[in-house]
Write a structure and sequence with these properties.
The protein is an alpha+beta fold. Helix content is 31%, strand content 38%. It has three helices and four strands. The chain has a four-stranded antiparallel beta sheet with strand order 2-3-1-4. The longest helix has 13 residues. The model has no long low-confidence stretch (mean pLDDT 97).
Length: 108
């Protein structure tokens, strides 16, 4: 049985759907993620001392926690932001068959 804590999700944002799709495809093609979902969001944040409000695309990348660091490094290599949000969280629970699928498609 798969241990859910061996799996998790990375979150990042991109300024456009094109850039988000490029990052998603790269993560899938390089087997750094099994699935990446794209969602339109509105972000409020402080950057360079000013409050900003921007439309962004949120990427939810499901993967193995062992791949967090290589995936984060790869995202940072291709991201247009100088300081991209890239954070990860472990799963506390999950369908064993789904977790097994993640393991299967992220074998490198």
């Amino acid at each position: 049985m798969s241990d859910p804590s061996d799996y998790g999700m990375l979150l990042t944002t991109a300024p456009s759907r094109d850039e988000a799709a490029k990052i998603a495809k790269l993560l899938i093609d390089e087997k750094l993620a099994a699935c990446v979902q794209l969602l339109p969001i509105e972000s409020f944040y402080v950057w360079e001392g000013k409050t900003r409000n921007e439309a962004e695309i949120l990427l939810l990348a499901k993967t193995r926690t062992a791949l967090f660091e290589p995936a984060i490094a790869r995202i940072k290599q291709v991201h247009s932001y100088s300081v991209p949000e890239v954070v990860g969280t472990r799963f506390l629970a999950g369908s064993p068959s789904y977790l097994d699928w993640i393991a299967e498609v992220t074998r490198r």
